[in-house]
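Appendix C. Worked example: EmrB/QacA subfamily drug resistance transporter
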Amino acid sequence: MDHTVKKTTRPPYGLLAVLMVGAFITFLNNTLLNVALPSIMTDLHVNTATVQWLSTVFMLVSGIMIPTTAFLIQKYSVRHLFLAAMGLFTIGTIIGGIAHIFPLLLAARVVQAAGAAIMMPVLMNVMLVSFPIEKRGTAMGVFGLIIMFAPAIGPTLSGWIVEHYSWRMLFMFIAPISLLIFLIGFFLLKDKKEKVDIRLDLLSVVLSSLGFGGLLYGFSSAGNAGWGSPQVYLSLMIGVITLTLFILRQSKLEEPMLSFAVFKFPSFTLASIIIMILNMALFSGFLMLPIYAQAIRGISPMDTGLMLLPGAVLNAFLSPITGRLFDKYGGRVLAVIGLTITTVATYFFSQLTFETSYTSLIVLHALRMLGMALIFMPVSTNGLNELPTRFYPHGTAMNNTLNQVSGAIGTALLVTIMTIRTESASVRLLTEAAGQQTAGVQQHIAMQAMLEGINFAFLVATFITAGALVLSFFMKRATQAEDKSGRPSATESRAKLAEN
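Step 2, the predicted output written as structure tokens:
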């Protein structure tokens, strides 16, 4: 009997391998395009505000699509969802490679994002169902390696390709690989799923799209348009109102599209709050550091990518190690240590000068990413561990949605803080230099003001991470809550998945 149980509950490693390769390509795409934006501006004759939509629309579509994945995971098999995700992503990539006008390139990013948004929740759900709680940390650590390493090499790879070839090669390079992965999945994935009698509530889809889409668009636009712009505050108002209606509707549906009942579980709620806070602060490094390096220090885009690479690679390769440590020691000790390191490193970034060495920037960023490696997967996995099996699709969808929203909020907040501080510092410095305002002095004042703005944004981020550090002391090692619904247990689900 024991032998049978071991055999039937063996994780489906072949299925996971195919999913992870597909996820790697879609995650790689997230950061590939950033370095190429100036080249696209020149080639397609668009300005900065317009070209930024290639990044913004990817986030918007993801934020709108991800809440529906809880329903999709329950309704369709992994095979169908994987093929749909990779098929959409491949089509979008091919269109992007041949796009000769900006609207067509933007449409390609929309199609790409639709595929990418499905991939991550599906993979996370399969991993949660496939591994018992005591081994889940190690499994999620390997997953962390995939999602961290792909974006880590993106800017450097993109910088090299753009330097030697056209930006279109970023799409042409990915297209045959994604097509090959689609074909591998088509022939290798054979999992089946019993017919599930649930229907997608169209009103929930509309409310979710307007709610999350409105919030994401509003916060994403605030950095450029300003908080007083109608497109910002009207988008935020629509987002808040429709999201409230969406939440109320989900509480009344017997089969909600996205169940907010996951927040009844304390460990999941605490983990969500910590990750959201950390996501907001995380963008201070990803956003402010390249601005400092290129605009103030004159470091080239390629060298900026290389500067960020060691920290990103360190973060990626530490993920499996932190996964094993999580299985052994739990999430709280890792979160406390990681948040302490991150808070200290973020504070040192608030002390940047015109003379801060390139090596110091690499070391500080690597130290910050070391802290991040100890936080994200352990904290989120600890929260998901408390959920009953039937809530896994909703928990993973909720996590990914909140990541998108908190990232947009963090970006808008820190850009606004940096802009306001830069403007006030500029006025002060110009007043102090009255009568000496030559072209050289004005340029130096502009740089000095921007430096003060960046440092102040990092200082605010320091206090944000310190808040997450305080919350981490309240974490407890989560155990799976009892499922009183009569649905299959996690063990039964794993056995079924392995059999298929």
